[in-house]
Structure formats: C-alpha cells, structure tokens
Write a structure and sequence with these properties.
Distance between the termini: 72 Å
CATH architecture of the largest domain: Orthogonal Bundle
Strand order of the largest sheet: 1-2-3
Radius of gyration: 29 Å
Number of helices: 24
Helix content: 55-70%
Number of domains: 3
Shape: globular
Strand content: 5-15%
Largest sheet: 3 strands, mixed
Length: 465
C-alpha cells in the first residue's frame, strides 16, 4: 500500500501516534523516486499533507542530490517553518541551494526568535549576505538578537509581545486584542508596562476574560512579573520554566526595559538541546548530527579519542609496574579487567546521575554533603555484594582462598573510589565553572582504571608473592 493510500484510508480516524506522524522509509523512497523522475504531480500528492517538521525530517534523510532536487521543487514556496526544524548541516545545504531572495522572504516571515535561530546556525558568509538583504525592521530585530551571547535568553526573544499601560480597562484591552492586526501567533500573558517600557505586571488571558470590562488592568495584574535579563544562559531559563510551571516569560535589557518574551515552545527545544548536549559531551562527542560528512564527524571525535588513548597508556603503565607479579601468577591477568570494569561501570552510574542532577538543579550546595554520603553508602553496599560474588567465584575456579580474598578487597576499594569519583569530580568541575558533562567521564574512567589495577595488583604482590 502506498503512503498516500494509507493517509487517505486513515483520514478522520483516531490512530496511534506513530501511524499518523512517523515518516516511513517507504515514504522516503517514494519521494526520492518522484524527484528522480521529476514527477511534480506525485510530489504534490505525497508532500502536501505533511507538517513542516515532517518535511524537515525528509530533507535530512534524503541524499545530497535528492535534497537539492527537493529544495528546487519547493522553490519560493518553501514553508519558512521547515527551515526552523532542520539540523545544521542540512540547513546549510538547503540555504545555499535556495535563491537568496527566497531565503530572505522566508526568514522575514518568521518570528524574530525563530529567524535568529535559523541564521545563527548557517555559515557566517551566508548569514551576513542574507541579513544585508532583509527589510530594515526585520534586519534590526535579527541583528539585535544575534548581538547577545550564544545560548542566552536574548537569542530566544520573540520581539512581538503585547504590552498595555496599567490605566487601560479590561474592556479596552480585549477590544485592542480583537482589532490589532500584528499580534503574536501564540500568547498566554499580557505585559503591563510603565511609560519607560519597564514591566510592572502581567495578566494571564484567563484572568483577563474572567474580569469585568470596567476594571483597570492594574487591579487584576500580577505585580511580580516573571522576567529575566537578556544575557542569562538559556539553561537557566529552562530551569525557571520547569521550576515555576511557566508558559511565557519576559526578557529585559540592561536598563530593565522589556525586549520581548520567551514562550514554552522555545523552552521545550532548549531542554531537548541541553539534554542532547550533555549526553554527547559525556561520550566525548561534540554537538553534531547524522547529516554531516565522514570527515567532519571524524574531526569532532578524534580529540577525545586521543585523550582517552593517553589515559589508557597511564593505566597500562600501572600494569607494567607489576609485570613480575603477573608473570608469576597468570590468574592476575585474567582477573584484573574485572576489577577495573566493575569500577568503571559503578563510576559511570554515579557520574550520570550527578551530571543530570547538576543540570536540573536538583543537586545544590545545600544538599551536596548529604548526597555524597548517600553515594558513598551505595558504593560500599554494592562493592560488598560484588566482592562476595567475585571472591567466591575466584575461590571455586582457582582453588586459592587468598586470591579470592585479594580480589574481593580490591573490588570494594575500587567501587567505593568509583562512587566517590563519580560525584566529587562533576561537583568539583561545576565549582570551577567547567561543564561537568564535558570532562567528567575522562577523569572518572582514569581514576577507576588506575585505582582498580593498583588495588588488585598491589594487594596481590603483598599477599600472594
């Protein structure tokens, strides 16, 4: 059954999420075939029902030439929202394939925060050329947004925000909302400002429509409007939204004047980006996407692989210190990877929980000592359980009680040290303003390997030799 037949058949029915929204491999193949055949009617048939986010996924999954052909198919009719959904490398290729005037018209139709989001992700030469061709009003808004630090609240600001003076009545505000042509596409609160455009309050739409027409808005407004400075990090913004269940928030400049607002849909994207960034950094990988070239992906990963190589050499030097002991008892070579491996796993577990807790502000200076104590107890308990298991297995297999005792003690030592390293290293890096997600894994792995080999081989040399 063809994709469009499935769409027609399912129209009007309540279907599971994936059946309705998933971009399938069959759909990609049908679109690719239609592009090669230049079958415009078939492309219209397949693409017209799709959401802009689905079209962005199709762009990302098509090969280079097919992607160019799809860009040419849309031409000046490209939905601007598609550009906001594209990953960086796919966006660059699509922008370069489009006519400059089409790009300018598409970006000019976007809200200021979305326009900034698109432009900051493309090549600087393309960005400057496009900005220079934009209408003055849109160009100034975009240039102001790009002037703020990357990943700051200023980059997320939607300039189109509703502001009214406190002296207006509810009825006048409602009439204004009915007649004003340039309202934001989505808004949840109205900001009350003074003559200098400083926010002095907020009124939710629900509060507004439940109030009498003659009531002045200053009587019903929340006198503690939620605002943040434009230079605050977007991760802090996301934390505030999550902490206080906000749907929108004001952004002010250095003089306290209202610049615009941030809405929850943008914050959802930030939460996703920050979580992805933490995961990639913990694996020693830079921000990337599946559409980049093999060379670019290799360059992004090689640096941390070289660092890992250095730490592996350090661990091998520790092993070399006990070369004579290993030669005398081959069982040591068989068992020592177990100690290091278990310590590494235990350290990674603790480190992952710690890094995520730091990112979500669940781990703070006020509770860090208690959490360290808790992780120490967990590591000791798990270490004792693993020590009993590996000690008994070693005794049964090698028929050597001392060897079983040595690996059991080494296991406890390494797992306790791994647990402590897994929390102390991220916390320490956070204290000196280094992203814990970026460097924690290297230090934790090194410590667990070195301590594991030292504990096991050192004890073995003392007790068994």
């Amino acid at each position: 059954m063809e994709t469009r037949d499935l769409i027609d058949k399912n129209e009007g029915k309540n279907l599971p999420y994936q059946e309705v929204f998933e971009v399938t491999s069959d759909l990609i193949e049908e679109i690719s075939a239609a592009l090669r055949q230049k079958n415009i009617e078939q492309l219209d048939y397949l693409l017209d029902p799709l959401h802009s986010a689905d079209i962005a996924i199709i762009f990302e999954q098509l090969r280079g030439e097919d992607r160019n052909e799809l860009t040419a198919y849309f031409g000046p009719e490209m939905n601007p929202e598609v550009l906001t959904e594209l990953e960086d490398n796919a966006l660059d290729q699509v922008i370069r394939q489009m006519d400059d005037q089409d790009v300018v018209e598409a970006i000019s139709q976007l809200e200021s925060d979305d326009a900034v989001d698109v432009l900051e992700d493309i090549h600087p030469k393309d960005r400057n050329r496009i900005i220079a061709a934009m209408p003055d009003e849109e160009r100034l808004a975009v240039e102001e947004g790009l002037s703020y630090p990357e990943d700051s609240a200023g980059r997320m600001v939607q300039k189109n925000v509703i502001t009214v003076p406190g002296s207006w009545t509810v009825g006048r505000v409602i009439q204004f909302l009915r007649t004003e042509e340039e309202l934001p596409p989505e808004f949840y609160e109205i900001f009350i400002v003074d003559p200098l455009h400083h926010p002095i309050g907020m009124v939710s739409l629900s509060q507004l429509i439940r109030s009498g027409d003659l009531a002045p808005v200053w009587e019903i407004m929340d006198t503690d409007p939620k605002v943040v400075p434009a230079d605050i990090d977007q991760e802090e913004v996301a934390h505030l939204f999550r902490q206080y269940d906000l749907t929108s928030m004001g952004v002010v400049d250095g003089d306290g004047r209202l610049l615009g607002m941030i809405t929850v849909d943008d914050v959802v994207d930030v939460i996703d980006e920050e979580a992805e960034e933490d995961i990639l950094r913990m694996a020693g990988v830079q921000e990337t996407d599946i559409t980049e070239s093999i060379l670019e992906a290799s360059k992004n990963r090689i640096v941390w692989l070289l660092v890992n190589l250095g730490t592996a050499i350090l661990a091998s030097m520790v092993i070399a210190m006990f070369e004579a002991s290993i030669e005398q008892m081959v069982a040591l070579a068989i068992l020592m990877p177990i100690v290091a491996s278990m310590g590494g796993n235990a350290g990674t577990q603790t480190m992952t929980v710690t890094v995520r807790s730091l990112a979500t502000k669940d781990l703070t200076p006020s509770n860090v000592k208690r959490v360290i104590g808790k992780e120490f107890a967990i590591a000791t308990m798990n270490g004792a359980v693993m020590a009993v298991i590996i000690g008994v297995l070693s005794l049964l297999y090698f028929d050597n009680p001392l060897l079983g005792a040595v690996i059991a003690v080494a296991m406890i030592i390494n797992m306790v040290m791994a647990g402590l390293a897994g929390i102390l290293i991220p916390v320490g890096l956070e204290r000196i303003n280094i992203d814990p997600a970026l460097a924690s894994s290297i230090f934790v792995t090194t410590i667990t390997d070195v301590i594991g080999f030292l504990a096991f081989l050192g004890l073995a040399s003392i007790v068994l030799m």
